[in-house]
């Protein structure tokens, strides 16, 4: 029986803090035209405003999880909140686009300290019976962020409060972070058993460099027309990642502190869970292609574009709450989620190919896809984290966050590159239809992974 009475109150503030990470991805996209005009930014600089945030977050999130293991999740979460607070203020009052890019880098650092503490805290604070509900609540913030980010961004940009325009998409973070700092201080358990080990600084550097070399080419490959040196960076990133894993195994043999326990990735159920998580996050390709299609081909404004994604976002938000009430085994729910994702995207592709514009039918098919996304996300998080001990919860949650981020970046790069290149060959509607059909097709890999995972889930 769990003896910590304020765990649910603490979870509310943990979730609110974690909500900032995806919110700032969606909401800033809406402000890019205003930022371009106000700061005289080039297209490349605007791309950096978006990319540097996700890049820093993905590269440091495992380090954030490890810091929580070592020094206490409450302490690291509060540090992350303060980092996010001051970097958001720096973003809002940036005099130049270069200043804004640097401030966004620090926002990414703050986000990397926030997200891994939530899953790890759920593992520690809640009983096994309570964890499904807690994880479902946490998962729902991603769907909520996709809706609120688009709509709130458009609303804030149109209101011009106090003479502010694009600055408001960063200033909206301030009250949320302040409330979370106060709330966590009074509700989260301060007890932490100190671990007498240091930080694996060499391993941290190797992992950060490896992820940078893997992610940067995916983000900027299209800009430089996939030049030969782009692939050199990719291969170097793979080599560094292998070197990092071998170095961590060496440290384990010497009984020295490690950043990631290599046995986590060698544990087949956990590795299969990461594979499924990686591929269902290819859904990020929708958020790259759909707004561009609506604005450039159908000439819709930012508010119309934001409203168009609402069916997907609402279903994404509702999915975690529905799945917590379904009395089925995890592997069956994973099949249902992947099936809805696949069917939703493929049916959407067919309808857009025929009608070429949003309609009541596309709202239904996108709702289906969003429901699949919201259904599978909490189950996969809960399943993956269940294969780890409490002592390794921070490392595991960091790896899950990396899987989400790299899946999103990779999916966005593959789907986006295909979409933009095919526009010139077959035209807008056909290119968009094929791109979102690809998102559905990639879920076959997840279904294969779930077949392999099924026998392990039966043992839980």
Automatic annotation (TrEMBL):
<feature type="transmembrane region" description="Helical">
    <location>
        <begin position="226"/>
        <end position="249"/>
    </location>
</feature>
<feature type="domain" description="Major facilitator superfamily (MFS) profile">
    <location>
        <begin position="10"/>
        <end position="458"/>
    </location>
</feature>
<keyword id="KW-1133">Transmembrane helix</keyword>
<dbReference type="InterPro" id="IPR020846">
    <property type="entry name" value="MFS_dom"/>
</dbReference>
<protein>
    <submittedName>
        <fullName>MFS transporter</fullName>
    </submittedName>
</protein>
<feature type="transmembrane region" description="Helical">
    <location>
        <begin position="399"/>
        <end position="420"/>
    </location>
</feature>
<dbReference type="InterPro" id="IPR036259">
    <property type="entry name" value="MFS_trans_sf"/>
</dbReference>
<keyword id="KW-0812">Transmembrane</keyword>
<dbReference type="GO" id="GO:0022857">
    <property type="term" value="F:transmembrane transporter activity"/>
</dbReference>
<feature type="transmembrane region" description="Helical">
    <location>
        <begin position="305"/>
        <end position="323"/>
    </location>
</feature>
<feature type="transmembrane region" description="Helical">
    <location>
        <begin position="432"/>
        <end position="451"/>
    </location>
</feature>
<dbReference type="InterPro" id="IPR011701">
    <property type="entry name" value="MFS"/>
</dbReference>
<feature type="transmembrane region" description="Helical">
    <location>
        <begin position="335"/>
        <end position="354"/>
    </location>
</feature>
<feature type="transmembrane region" description="Helical">
    <location>
        <begin position="108"/>
        <end position="126"/>
    </location>
</feature>
<feature type="transmembrane region" description="Helical">
    <location>
        <begin position="199"/>
        <end position="220"/>
    </location>
</feature>
<dbReference type="GO" id="GO:0016020">
    <property type="term" value="C:membrane"/>
</dbReference>
<feature type="transmembrane region" description="Helical">
    <location>
        <begin position="76"/>
        <end position="102"/>
    </location>
</feature>
<feature type="transmembrane region" description="Helical">
    <location>
        <begin position="360"/>
        <end position="379"/>
    </location>
</feature>
<keyword id="KW-0472">Membrane</keyword>
<feature type="transmembrane region" description="Helical">
    <location>
        <begin position="138"/>
        <end position="162"/>
    </location>
</feature>
<feature type="transmembrane region" description="Helical">
    <location>
        <begin position="12"/>
        <end position="32"/>
    </location>
</feature>
<dbReference type="Pfam" id="PF07690">
    <property type="entry name" value="MFS_1"/>
</dbReference>
<feature type="transmembrane region" description="Helical">
    <location>
        <begin position="44"/>
        <end position="64"/>
    </location>
</feature>
<feature type="transmembrane region" description="Helical">
    <location>
        <begin position="168"/>
        <end position="187"/>
    </location>
</feature>
<feature type="transmembrane region" description="Helical">
    <location>
        <begin position="270"/>
        <end position="293"/>
    </location>
</feature>
């Amino acid at each position: 029986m769990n003896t910590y009475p304020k765990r649910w109150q603490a979870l509310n503030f943990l979730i609110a803090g974690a909500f900032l990470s995806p919110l700032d991805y969606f909401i800033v996209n809406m402000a890019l035209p205003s930022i371009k005009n106000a700061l005289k930014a080039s297209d490349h600089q605007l791309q950096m405003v978006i990319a540097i945030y996700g890049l820093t977050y993905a590269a440091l999130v495992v380090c954030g999880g490890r810091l929580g293991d070592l020094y206490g999740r409450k302490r690291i979460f509060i540090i992350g909140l303060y980092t996010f607070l001051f970097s958001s203020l720096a973003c809002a009052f940036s005099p130049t686009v270069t200043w804004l890019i640097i401030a966004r880098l620090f926002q990414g650092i703050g986000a990397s300290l926030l997200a891994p503490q939530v899953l790890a805290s759920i593992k520690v604070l809640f009983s096994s019976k309570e964890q499904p509900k807690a994880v479902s609540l946490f998962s729902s913030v991603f769907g909520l962020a996709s809706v609120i980010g688009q709509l709130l961004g458009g609303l804030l940009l149109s209101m011009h409060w106090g003479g502010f325009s694009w600055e408001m998409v960063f200033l909206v973070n301030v009250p949320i972070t302040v409330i979370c700092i106060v709330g966590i201080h009074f509700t989260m358990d301060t007890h932490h058993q100190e671990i007498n080990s240091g930080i694996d600084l060499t391993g941290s550097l190797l992992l950060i460099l490896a992820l940078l070399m893997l992610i940067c080419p995916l983000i900027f490959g299209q800009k430089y027309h996939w030049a030969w040196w782009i692939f050199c960076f990719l291969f170097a990133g793979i080599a560094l990642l292998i070197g990092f894993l071998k170095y961590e195994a060496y440290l384990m043999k010497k009984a020295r502190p490690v950043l990631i326990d290599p046995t986590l990735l060698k544990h087949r159920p956990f590795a299969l869970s990461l594979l499924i998580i990686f591929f269902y996050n290819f859904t990020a390709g929708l958020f790259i292609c759909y707004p561009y299609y609506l604005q450039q081909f159908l000439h819709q404004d930012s508010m119309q574009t934001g409203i168009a994604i609402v069916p997907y976002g609402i279903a994404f938000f509702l999915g975690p709450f529905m799945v917590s009430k379904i009395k089925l085994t995890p592997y069956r729910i994973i099949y249902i989620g992947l099936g809805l994702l696949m069917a939703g995207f493929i049916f959407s592709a067919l309808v857009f190919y025929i009608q070429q514009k949003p309609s009541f039918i596309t709202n239904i098919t996108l709702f289906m896809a969003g429901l699949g996304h919201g259904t599978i996300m909490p189950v996969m998080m809960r399943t993956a984290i269940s294969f780890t001990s409490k002592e390794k919860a921070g490392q595991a949650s960091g790896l899950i966050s990396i899987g989400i981020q790299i899946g999103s970046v990779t999916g966005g790069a593959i789907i986006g590159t295909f979409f933009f290149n095919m526009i010139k060959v077959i035209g807008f509607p056909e290119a968009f239809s094929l791109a979102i059909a690809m998102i559905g097709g990639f879920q076959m890999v997840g279904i294969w992974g779930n077949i392999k995972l099924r026998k392990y889930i039966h043992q839980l």
